[in-house]
Each structure stands twice: as structure tokens, then as C-alpha cells.
TrEMBL record:
Spans traversing the lipid bilayer: 20-37, 44-65, 71-92, 104-123, 129-149, 161-179, 185-207
Highest rank taxon of the organism: Bacteria
Main location: membrane
A Pfam family reported for this protein in Swiss-Prot or TrEMBL: Gly_transporter
Boundaries of every Glycine transporter domain copy: 21-92, 104-176
Source species: Sphingobium algorifonticola
Record membrane topology: Multi-pass membrane protein
Keyword Cell membrane in record: yes
Protein name: Trimeric intracellular cation channel family protein
Keywords tagged on the record: Cell membrane, Membrane, Transmembrane, Transmembrane helix
Length: 214
């Protein structure tokens, strides 16, 4: 027996605020991918490739799962934003980017993408619970692909708060939408909450406890 959809009339249409979150998330994730390539002293081609797969990786998987046209194939703007971010990082001096710049860019992109991913899933009639999961997939998958390409331990294998921040952003957005909060307001509140949690985790080194047997 399937669970009933509780948000059919509230499923948000993708408006200016959500579109802004999407392009901001794409560009910032792309920049974090380019920074990962910079750490490895790679070529401009590698910069662009890292930026593209990081910027669109999560959204691509989301669209394939919910049966939507892949967003950057239907609209070239996200891919252009990724290449532009790669060029920006390539052309600026290395000392402009602190060692924590990747983490902070990733934190903003994570929160923005998690909210947009949940909203887009809702707009395609996906059950709210699953829509929240789609937000997490959208927010986290690009970073996971980036880390794998860079040969770094995946964020999933580190105890720091990351997926939890994406879950907070997407889950809070779905909840606020269900309560009737206007979509633009719910989007901003949820994105700020997800970013705040990730920011505190970065600044304070917060992490979830690991499994202990016995």
C-alpha cells in the first residue's frame, strides 16, 4: 500500500527564488570542484571537467530518478556557469583561496542545492518524504563525485556533519511547504538553516558519533 501524497496542492512551482538557489548552488559547487583540481595542480581542461561534474552531478542523478529532463541538458546555463567558475578559479592567484575555501563554497552549495532538489521533486509529484531524500541526493552527490575524482576520502566516510545539513535543509523546506509557508520564504529559511548547521560544523569541528560495538 502506497503512502498518500500530502502536498499535491502545495507542490511548489520552480520560481525565481528557487531558480536562484539552483544557479548559485551549481556555480559554488563547480568552484569547489575547480579548487579540488587546483590542489592537484591540474590543467584547465581538468579544472573544467571537475567543475562540471561537481556542479551538475547531484542534479543529474535527481532528474534521472524523478523522471525529469536533465536540467543542464535542457538548459545550457548551468553548464556555462560551471565552466565560468572553473575559469575564474584558474585565472585568480592561488593565495586568494584559503585552504578552507572549498569547505565554505561547498557549504553554501550544499544548502542551496538541497532545497532546490526537494522543491523540484515536489513539483514533479514526488511524495514529500522521498522529495526530502532527493534534496539530500542533489546536495551531496556532486561533492561525493568530486572527492572520488580527486582521490580524497568520500564525505560519506568522514564523521563530520555534512549529509545531516543537507537533510535539515531539504526536510525543513518540505515541512514548511506542508504548513503553508510561501515557497520563497520556506526556501530561504531552509537554505539558511542547512548552511548554518554546516558552518558550525566546519568552524567547531562538530561530528556525529561513530558506531561502537560492545
Amino acid at each position: 500500500m502506497s503512502l498518500p501524497l500530502t502536498l499535491p496542492p502545495l507542490a511548489p512551482q520552480i520560481g525565481p527564488v528557487l531558480e536562484t538557489l539552483s544557479i548559485v548552488g551549481t556555480a559554488l559547487f563547480a568552484a569547489s570542484g575547480a579548487l579540488a583540481a587546483a590542489r592537484l595542480h591540474q590543467t584547465l581542461v581538468t579544472f573544467a571537467f571537475f567543475a562540471l561534474v561537481t556542479g551538475v552531478g547531484g542534479g543529474t542523478l535527481r532528474d534521472l530518478l524523478i523522471g525529469a529532463p536533465v536540467f543542464w541538458v535542457a538548459d545550457p546555463l548551468p553548464a556555462i556557469a560551471c565552466v565560468a567558475a572553473a575559469l575564474l578559479v584558474w585565472m585568480t592567484p592561488r593565495h586568494w583561496w584559503s585552504d578552507r575555501a572549498l569547505d565554505w563554497l561547498d557549504a553554501v552549495g550544499l544548502a542551496a542545492f538541497a532545497v532546490f532538489g526537494a522543491a523540484k521533486a515536489l513539483s514533479f509529484g514526488i511524495h514529500p518524504f522521498v522529495a526530502g531524500i532527493m534534496g539530500v541526493v542533489t546536495g551531496c552527490m556532486g561533492g561525493i563525485i568530486r572527492d572520488l575524482l580527486a582521490g580524497e576520502p568520500s564525505i560519506l566516510l568522514r564523521p563530520e556533519i555534512y549529509v545531516t545539513a543537507a537533510a535539515l535543509a531539504s526536510g525543513l523546506f518540505v515541512t514548511l511547504a506542508a504548513l503553508g509557508v510561501p515557497v520563497p520564504v520556506a526556501s530561504v529559511i531552509a537554505a539558511l538553516a542547512g548552511f548554518a548547521l554546516r558552518a558550525v560544523a566546519i568552524a567547531k569541528g562538530l561530528a556525529l558519533p561513530g558506531y561502537r560495538r560492545g
